[in-house]
Amino acid sequence: MAVVRRSGESPCALAPAGIITNRLPSQAVYQGSTEMEIKRFETKARMSRAVVYNNTVYLCGQVGKDASKGITEQTATTLEKIEELLESVGSNKDKILSATIYIKDMAYFADMNAVWDAWVTPGMAPARACVQAAMAREELLVEISIVAAV
């Protein structure tokens, strides 16, 4: 079994010819392929607002611009922020693959859905889950996390 290495780097494990082994076996890159770069946007100590990898963007949970407002306004401004963030990394709402919606109380479900349904382009609805959850701050009513194609 031949091992291919990048010049000056030691392998982590043996691998068949054609695999570069300067990383764990599960992270091997086949010779001739392009290594995927991870791009992080607006990164702070705890998290990045967006991470792009392999033509997919992962957004951190987004909340409304003004937490003192009701569910309709919080949902609308959360979706505005999502749209702006997607556009900043070369995507858009029609490329959303999956949405996870955290709602403080299911009593808000119908009002949140009315805003969501008006926002989603007909025929472009992503896979979606909605769960009731304790929020990070008492005044938050909704948080939405997105995965989208770039």
Automatic annotation (TrEMBL):
Gene3D superfamilies: RutC-like
SUPFAM superfamilies given in the database record: YjgF-like
CDD domains assigned to the protein according to its UniProt record, in alphabetical order: YjgF_YER057c_UK114_like_2 (cd06150)
Pfam families registered for this protein in UniProt: Ribonuc_L-PSP
Family named by the database record: Belongs to the RutC family.
Protein name: Enamine deaminase RidA, house cleaning of reactive enamine intermediates, YjgF/YER057c/UK114 family
